[in-house]
Amino acid sequence: MPVSCEMNRKKVKSKSELLCDKIDGIIKQAQKQITAFTKTKNELEFESGLLKKAMSMKLGSEEDIRQVAADMKTWKTEVKSDVKSAVNAKKQELRFERKERRKMLKLPETEKKTTAKRTRKKRGGFI
Predict the structure, then answer these.
(1) CA atoms of 65 and 54, how far apart (whole Å)
(2) From CA 112, how far away is CA 47, in angstroms rounded?
(3) Which residues, 6+ apart, have CB-to-CB distance to 67 below 8 Å?
(4) What is the reported pLDDT for 108?
(5) How far is CA 5 from CA 8, 9, 11, 55, 109, in A?
(6) Contact call for residues 71 and 63 (beta carbons, < 8 A)
(7) Residues 71-100: tens digit of each pLDDT
(8) Helix then strand then coil, % of the chain, to nearest 5
């Protein structure tokens, strides 16, 4: 059967396929972040239940355990603040990039000059 126009041979993905691809990308990114987190956790050599074990086994004096607990709290707050500042810096950087992209998209539109249209003079107005 003859076709009057050429067929588009390009494969066009449906919205659901595009959404699935986007979700797969997000999952891959999350897995990368999880591996990075476990790597940093292993580098820091931090075990959460270690202090409780020391307290239950009474390995040191109470003052030493209190000092260690205070040091751990300060270390945790420092790590949290460092992570927060890094996340905020990354967010600011992404915002700045998006802002620059929007500016670049707007520039060609503002440079266009529109020619003034001549309007015909109307006679007789509202009666």
Answers:
(1) 8
(2) 62
(3) none
(4) 61
(5) 9, 12, 17, 81, 35
(6) no
(7) 888 888 888 888 888 888 989 998 999 899
(8) 70, 0, 30
